[in-house]
Amino acid sequence: MLFTSYGFIFFLCVVIGLYYIIPKQFQWKLLLVSSFVFYYFSGWSNLIYISVTIVSTYFVGLKLDSLDRQQNLYLKENKEVLSREDKKAYKEKIKARRWRWLLLCLFFNLGILAVIKYTNFVIANINSIFTLFKLNELSFVNLLLPMGISFYTFQTMGYIIDVYRGKYGAEKNIGKLALFVSFFPQLIQGPISRYDDLSLSLYKEHNFDPKGFSFGFQRVLWGYFKKLVIADRIVIAVLEITKNPETYDGIFVLVGMVFYAIQLYADFTGGIDITIGIAQMLGIKVKENFNRPYFSKSIVEYWRRWHITMGTWFKDYIFYPLSVCKPMLNISKSSRKRFGEQIGKRVPVYLSTITVWFTTGIWHGSSWNFIVWGLLNGFVILVSQEFEPLYAKFHQKFNVRNTFGFRLFQVIRTFLLMSSLRILDCYRDVGISFRMFGSMFTKLNINELFTGSLLKLGLDISDYVVLLIGVIILISLSLVQRSGSVREKISGKPVIIRYTVFVLLFFSIIIFGAYGIGFDSNQFIYNQF
After folding, report:
1. Cβ atoms of 75 and 194 closer than 8 Å
2. Domain ranges, ordered by start, for the chain
């Protein structure tokens, strides 16, 4: 049941209608039932996977809490008897048991994700080796990837790690934990919420708030505008270019690269807008996932603004723990002795960064193009960090840092750099991606754009006009948003202006949305993850 389907719109209207009619103490239970109904339509067998994750995490969470209480009670009852060494030994014993339970939960649930998502990728690579030695190839297995499994698995594992760390206690009500894991608006493509954040409003009783509902509805419409008017229109040209690399090289690779950047942003942020808007209509607050990333002046800044909840997940649960763990500190200590202080102190950062970006790449997809994409992102970030002293010297000599021209140059540079790396996503093949990237320099002929070739990409003049206007609106609103919420600003205008904006947005989607004859309302890109 896609966000862009009539079935989902009907489903959402029913859920929201019931939500504000039924007694408020049943609101979160309605959302739980609705979430499982929503997930059922993605395939009944998928309910097994998400249910197993919920149940296993629930019981491990209770076990971690139980061991923590056991420790506190034992130490309290034997306060006068135990020596300091005895207390320390007991704490270490309980810590080891809690650690084993955490590892069991992590390996079990991440193992489910790994088996489903990466088994055929591993088989394909083994078969490549077998082919070299003329051995019989292994057969692929038929495993369907459950919708949003990467998102809900990471969200749930973040929860259990936080319980282990003592950030909060385990949720005692399995229904409430199930709702946290399965909350239907964010199942398709996130955000990856944290329990202590989402639970603040997810289980509360909510009265109908006209302003909040209106703001949420406006955001939903804005998400549909991005998705249907921009993303699902421009994807036609992107697919034409990337599926025919022998025909469209040179300047068309640059066009496809820029078009894909627009498509990805409009598609992903459009879906997140719909998610956050639906939640707001229900009185529930979901974390923002984007902060105008295409205005970033460096790749590091870009990744702080793009898919924010994913970035913070990898930082909090992989980068920091890995960089300060005992084995990593030992490696750092050894490196300091052998290679000197400067190299030794970089080793934990380098190894942790590479690990995070390898994981980020393979999280996005079970193929080498995503792994190379992830590693290249990590490489560029590390190189840029090493060149920071040179940047500082440059800015000392040339005082251009705060000029508009230099800031614009930084924004364009970052946009083109990130778009270049995404070629690996566009072509889904490492060899073809690098060959197409090279053709932008060896076969670049700008004149090809003025021979009518752009009209052979599946879009006509009216499509390009709609896209141009849509992108201009997108950029303009992003610029306005830098000084505060656009919806708040509109709400302060006279009623006639507020409703005119609403009507224009609604009918823009109806009239210019890329659906109907000749079009396909594509799944959201991040649905595959």
Report:
1. no
2. 6-209, 212-309+362-528
